[in-house]
Automatic annotation (TrEMBL):
<protein>
    <recommendedName>
        <fullName>Arabinogalactan endo-beta-1,4-galactanase</fullName>
        <ecNumber>3.2.1.89</ecNumber>
    </recommendedName>
</protein>
<dbReference type="GO" id="GO:0045490">
    <property type="term" value="P:pectin catabolic process"/>
</dbReference>
<keyword id="KW-0732">Signal</keyword>
<dbReference type="InterPro" id="IPR054470">
    <property type="entry name" value="FIMAH_dom"/>
</dbReference>
<dbReference type="Pfam" id="PF00754">
    <property type="entry name" value="F5_F8_type_C"/>
</dbReference>
<keyword id="KW-0378">Hydrolase</keyword>
<feature type="domain" description="Bacterial Ig-like">
    <location>
        <begin position="559"/>
        <end position="614"/>
    </location>
</feature>
<dbReference type="InterPro" id="IPR008979">
    <property type="entry name" value="Galactose-bd-like_sf"/>
</dbReference>
<dbReference type="InterPro" id="IPR011683">
    <property type="entry name" value="Glyco_hydro_53"/>
</dbReference>
<comment type="similarity">
    <text>Belongs to the glycosyl hydrolase 53 family.</text>
</comment>
<dbReference type="InterPro" id="IPR000421">
    <property type="entry name" value="FA58C"/>
</dbReference>
<feature type="domain" description="FIMAH">
    <location>
        <begin position="631"/>
        <end position="708"/>
    </location>
</feature>
<dbReference type="Pfam" id="PF07532">
    <property type="entry name" value="Big_4"/>
</dbReference>
<dbReference type="Pfam" id="PF07745">
    <property type="entry name" value="Glyco_hydro_53"/>
</dbReference>
<dbReference type="Pfam" id="PF22888">
    <property type="entry name" value="FIMAH"/>
</dbReference>
<feature type="signal peptide">
    <location>
        <begin position="1"/>
        <end position="31"/>
    </location>
</feature>
<dbReference type="GO" id="GO:0031218">
    <property type="term" value="F:arabinogalactan endo-1,4-beta-galactosidase activity"/>
</dbReference>
Length: 718
């Protein structure tokens, strides 16, 4: 085991300590560049194709089809009255379930339960004793992961459809579940630049560094790439300066600085003197003449030394990444002819490829030729040995750090990446009794597919490899630059929407498997900053607010379901409920409702009113109902105006009492009979002198409306 480090510390600590004496934080900036509308990222999980529904009756899929005009229908009499939803995995961010019943005017007795395993259930909402009308938003305080939901219908009022029109299962991006950060390795490469969140050039909003400014926007994790002996890709000449070189000393300086800010640090070993990616994986010059066994030892020693230097300096990496985008292997050797994408210094020096390395021979995957298949397996053996060396060294130097492997998924090439994970995980376990913690990918829509493809990739990994944490190690999108082919415009708003959707895709992965999203070089590549004039100041785009604003801090009861009688203004609540995510408590918050025109409740049906709270909008669908009280009120008005009098009054009153009595009992046929009796009394010629034509016409019209409601309810009952 290596105990000594070759890193020089004399400059590192002094420079970082001097940086940390500068005030690093300021109040939230008020002026970002451009404008982006950013809302908390939330997903109705029923839109995911891996979510399923089951029931012993009806079509349960209709309860999660995002269509309020369809519904799952229960068979209450047969005791088949439950629908169960399987989310495919657990979700800790699932904090609200919207339940909508088919009949907005109906009263429903029901119970909503949740479970993580389908065996042990706990209650989310219980209206077994007293029903609710229309539906409800259920706020969930339990932070344990929920996979299953079960809605059990226990009874409905007369005239209401027994069933559920929609279950909206909302998953929120929460700080506790998703870490956002960036690869900001270029931080020391541009010492004259000042980064800020404000539109001013006299002083930056924090300390002017990329790292500190990105922390200001909401990031909490930084990744730094490591090159062995950085050199010019054209000439091969070593980079003369430490700052901005990406060498181990430069990396340690940045790590110390970030750690001093309280940020988490990730290390990204390229095992090269310059860029390593799917198109080129060139050995460091100092290792090019090593045979395979010596190369394995060099990987171990270098990984151990750099990681141990961080530990000695007081920085415990959050994770150590072994290799960068190594879908095609790493430290390529004499496995095959070079691709031609290598830097010039390697193209012009065949000794880089004289010895064995760790390139994977994908062209022989599934080959029917025994020799080619043997070459494929041998390449995997060599590659796995190199990866194992890096993993063992990282764990030995920093047992508390997680280990990460980073690849890509090219468009329409998911099967290749799945083969990579299968080969690597099995070979590490079987040949070396070793493993790693985090499977990660890059996601650039130009090369890796649509946002829906990213969701597919993450779901496939989480399903096939449930024991591994997932991460998006690189992503970005431009805020300018003409036409876009990514599905997002090249604008500040498009950049914000893209970042929100990547966060959402990661957060929506089953079992909260995807824990981290890293933006690649947000200050330089497809930049999230815009230069202020010709100055050295670079202002954060408004899109960077996404790293604060996409997280939900409060979850609002945003839908209320109310009823009112025909011609009666609805009673609207003065408060609605709000879940405070930080305290995990439900509180009441004041709501101010928009004015309601009398015409809205002057006809049967429904209408919606909007309310405003300090935490967002609330909508209240309101069902306008017809019942005996409407006729009673009309009769009272006609009695007061002397348009209704004499013996007709008790005749009509008694008929209505009988209607109400039988309706309440559920005897709809008898209720219909007494409405008919009511109409007979109204139309009897001998009562002409006791009622005006206007009163007779009005009461008869509303009695027929009541009769129509009763007939509907009776048909549903059958």
């Amino acid at each position: 085991m290596r105990k000594q480090s070759f890193l020089r510390k004399s400059v590192s600590l002094a420079s970082v300590i001097s940086l940390l004496t500068i005030p690093l934080f300021s109040t939230q900036a008020s002026a970002y560049y451009g404008n982006a509308a950013i809302k908390p990222a939330v997903t109705n999980l029923t839109t995911k194709d891996w979510v399923s529904a089951q029931s012993n009756t009806g079509d349960p899929k209709l309860a999660i089809d995002q269509d309020l005009n369809t519904y799952w229908e229960a068979s209450l009499g047969a005791g088949q009255n439950s629908v169960e939803i399987d989310l495919g995995g657990t979700y800790r961010g699932m904090r609200k379930v919207g339940v909508v019943f088919p009949s907005l005017h109906g009263e429903y007795r029901y119970k909503l339960e949740a479970s993580g395993d389908g065996v042990s259930w706990f209650t989310l909402s219980d209206h077994s004793a007293k029903g609710i009308t229309g539906g409800e938003d259920v706020l969930i305080t339990q932070s344990a992961g929920i996979r299953y939901l079960k809605a059990t219908l226990l009874g409905v009022s007369n005239g209401a459809i027994p069933g559920i029109a929609e279950l909206r299962i909302n998953n929120y991006v929460l700080k506790e579940n998703l870490t956002v950060g960036a690869d900001i390795s270029w931080d020391t490469s541009f010492p004259n630049r000042m980064y800020t969140t404000q539109n001013r050039t006299d002083s930056p909003s924090s300390d002017g560094h990329m790292i500190g400014t990105m922390q200001e926007t909401g990031m909490s994790l930084v990744r730094f790439r490591i090159w062995n002996q950085p050199r010019d890709e054209n000439t091969g000449a070593p980079v003369p300066n430490v700052n901005g070189s990406m060498n181990p000393e430069d990396t340690l300086n940045k790590s110390l600085y970030a750690n001093g800010l309280g940020m988490k640090v990730g290390l990204d070993f390229h095992y090269s003197d310059s860029w390593a990616d799917p198109g080129k994986q060139v050995k460091p010059q100092g290792w090019k003449n090593l045979n395979y066994e010596e190369l394995v030892e060099a990987v171990y020693n270098f990984t151990y030394d750099v990681t141990a230097a961080h530990i000695e300096a007081g920085v415990t990496p959050k994770y150590v990444q072994v290799g960068n985008e190594i879908i095609n292997g790493m430290m390529w050797g004499n496995e095959k002819i070079a691709t031609g994408l290598e830097p010039n210094y390697a193209k012009n020096d065949p000794s880089y490829f004289a010895e064995q390395g760790g390139e994977l021979l994908w062209e022989y995957w599934n080959s029917a030729d025994p020799e080619e298949q043997a070459a494929y397996d041998a390449a995997w053996d060599r590659f796995t040995g190199l990866v194992d060396a890096g993993l063992r060294a990282a764990k030995a130097a920093s047992p508390a750090s997680k280990t990460k492997i980073h690849v890509i998924v090219s468009t329409n090439r998911l099967a290749k990446t799945m083969e990579f994970w299968n080969q690597l995980t099995h070979r590490l376990q079987e040949d070396y009794n070793n493993s790693f913690d985090i499977m990660s990918i890059s996601y650039y829509p130009e090369w890796h597919g649509k946002m829906s493809d990213l969701t597919t990739y993450l779901h496939a990994f989480a399903t096939e490899f449930p024991d591994y944490e997932l991460a998006i190690s690189e992503t970005s999108h431009p805020a300018a630059g003409g036409e876009s082919a990514t599905g997002y415009p090249n604008s500040v708003q498009g950049q914000a929407d893209f970042m929100t959707d990547v966060m959402r895709a990661c957060n929506d992965t089953i079992n909260n498997a995807c824990s981290t999203m890293l933006v690649w070089e947000p200050a330089i590549w497809q930049s999230m900053f815009t230069r202020i004039g010709n100055t050295d100041y670079w202002q954060a785009n408004d899109s960077t607010r996404v790293f604060h604003e996409a997280y939900s801090k409060q979850i609002l009861e945003s839908n209320l379901y109310l009823t009112t009688r025909l011609y009666h203004a609805p009673k609207l609540p003065k408060t609605v409920r709000l879940l405070d995510v930080e305290t995990n408590e439900v509180v009441n918050i004041a709501v101010t409702w928009d004015p309601i025109a009398a015409e809205s409740y002057a006809a049967l049906g429904s209408f919606t009113v909007t309310g405003t709270t300090a935490s967002g909008k609330v909508t209240a669908p309101i069902a306008v109902m017809m019942d005996t009280c409407v006729l009673e009120n009309l009769m009272d008005n006609f009695i007061k105006s002397k348009e209704l009098s004499g013996p007709l009054v008790p005749q009509l009153t008694n008929s209505l009492k009988q209607v109400q009595h039988h309706w309440k009992k559920g005897s709809l046929k008898n209720a219909i009979k007494f409405v008919d009796q009511y109409l007979t009394h109204l139309n009897r010629a001998s009562n002409d002198k006791h009622i005006s034509p206007n009163a007779r016409e009005t009461l008869a019209e509303h009695a027929r409306l009541l009769l129509e409601e009763l007939h509907k309810a009776n048909r549903l009952k059958k």
